[in-house]
Amino acid sequence: MIRHTAALAAALTLTLPGTAHAAGPNRLPMTLAQNGLRSAPAHAAGSNALPPILTPTYTCDSVRGDPGRTVLFGGCAASLGAVTNGDFTGEAFGFARDVALRIKCTGGGTADVPGEVALQDCARVG
């Protein structure tokens, strides 16, 4: 059994660059032990690598096309980090406001936000 001591808590305190808190500069006010974690995630364990980027998501007013090539159009918005003008590869999610459509696409596509987003190889989700 591990006893929670001040030394253990100090040793397990996570630090993040650019943050400040009453617990001290560049310190989060929690410890791994207090949150039941046995080790820090790779991106918090001292490497400067960022955590994985979320899957790009596009939300537009309406939709046309078929599962091979689906076009979301009108009033489009892209999630943070998603391509807003040009081609992209990989997975993306698409949502149409007017028809309550949610799709997951695996073949990339082309974005021209806010006008339209063309997505490839899509399947309905949810």
Q: First CA to last CA: what distance? A: 44 Å
Query: Which shape, going by the Cα principal axes?
Result: globular
Rg, Å, rounded:
21 Å
Please provide the ordered H/E string of secondary-structure elements. Answer: HEEEEEEEEEEEE
Major β-sheet, in short? 5 strands, mixed
Low-confidence segments: 1-46
Task: Order the strands across the largest sheet as they lie in space.
Answer: 6-3-8-9-12
Please give the share of residues in helix.
Answer: under 10%
Please state roughly what percent of the residues sit in beta strands, choosing from under 5%, 5-15%, 15-25%, 25-35%, 35-45% or over 45%: 35-45%
Number of distinct helices: 1
The number of domains is 2
Structural class: mainly beta
Number of strands: 12
Q: Would you tell me the overall average pLDDT?
A: 74
Structure description:
With 126 residues, the protein is mainly beta. It has 2 domains: 6-44, no CATH class; 57-124, no CATH class. The chain has one helix spanning 6-11; strands spanning 20-21, 24-25, 57-60, 62-65, 69-73, 77-78, 85-88, 92-96, 101-105, 109-112, 116-120, 122-124. The strands form 3 sheets. Strands 6-3-8-9-12 form a 5-stranded mixed β-sheet, with no helix packed on it. It is globular. The N and C termini lie far apart (44 Å).
